[in-house]
Amino acid sequence: MRCPFCGHDDTQVKDSRPTEDNSTIRRRRMCLDCGSRFTTFERVQLRDLTVLKRNGRREPFERDKLIRSISISCRKRPVEADRIERIANSIQRRLESSGESEIPTESVGEMVMDALVALDQVAYVRFASVYRNFREAKDFEDFVGQIGDEEDSGD
User: Fold this and answer.
1) What DSSP assignment string belongs to 64-84?
2) Local structure of residue 8 (DSSP, 8 states)
3) In terms of domains, do 33 and 57 share one?
4) Quick one: 31 and 81 in the same domain?
5) At 45, is the pLDDT very low, low, confident or very high (cuts 50, 70, 90)?
6) Bridge partners of residue 71, in order along the sequence
7) What is the maximum alpha-carbon separation in the chain?
8) Per the domain annotation, does 3 fall within a domain?
9) Torsion of CA 116, 118, 124, 127, to 10 degrees
10) Which of 141, 135, 134, 112 is CA-nearest to residue 124?
11) Which residues are bridge partners to 29 per DSSP?
12) Do 39 and 86 belong to one domain?
């Protein structure tokens, strides 16, 4: 592992432990050249995933991009960072175990929306507004009305 401070390519693991949900190993490392310490995270990757965009373009799946988009939706909401991590871990595991290596962006978006609706209604509406490309206030009104209808019917 290359040192992020000096670029030396030999570091030593000082401590390893699993994260709370046991999906990742947290490693404390020390550079043998400059003595700096840093943390790395190691997780199992079952397969390389490719996201198939709406415009037909293909991009490698980026877990960090998934976490960023969920985090933006949850900004200034009472949602802990570890909850966002767990959602991302769960979505990534589901995608990797689906048997498909190309995943339509719609599938990823729906998984995020399913997780957010149970987590925080405001974050859910924020994510949906970008994911469903709301263009005017009426789009928000219709969407929020649907949420209210679902809650009233007991879904």
Assistant:
1) HHHHHHHHHHHTTSS--HHHH
2) -
3) no
4) no
5) low
6) none
7) 64
8) no
9) 20
10) 112
11) 13, 38
12) no
Give the strand pairing for 11-18 and 24-31: antiparallel
pLDDT of residue 130: 83
Per residue in 59-76, pLDDT (tens digit) is 999 999 999 999 999 999
Residue 7 DSSP one-character state = -
Burial 15-36 (b: 16+ CB within 10 A, else e): eeeeeeeebbeebebbbeeeee
Q: Residue 64 is encoded by which pair of tokens?
A: 């960090």
Is residue 12 within 8 A of residue 30, CB to CB? The reply is yes
Give how many domains the chain has, as a whole number. 2
Same domain, 66 and 105: yes
Taking the model in full, what pTM does it have?
0.66
Task: Give the amino acid at 128.
Answer: A
Q: Which helix (H) or strand (E) holds 21?
A: none
Nearest to 129 by CA among 119, 116, 118, 143: 143
Look up the domain containing 16 and give its range: 11-43
Same domain, 86 and 26: no
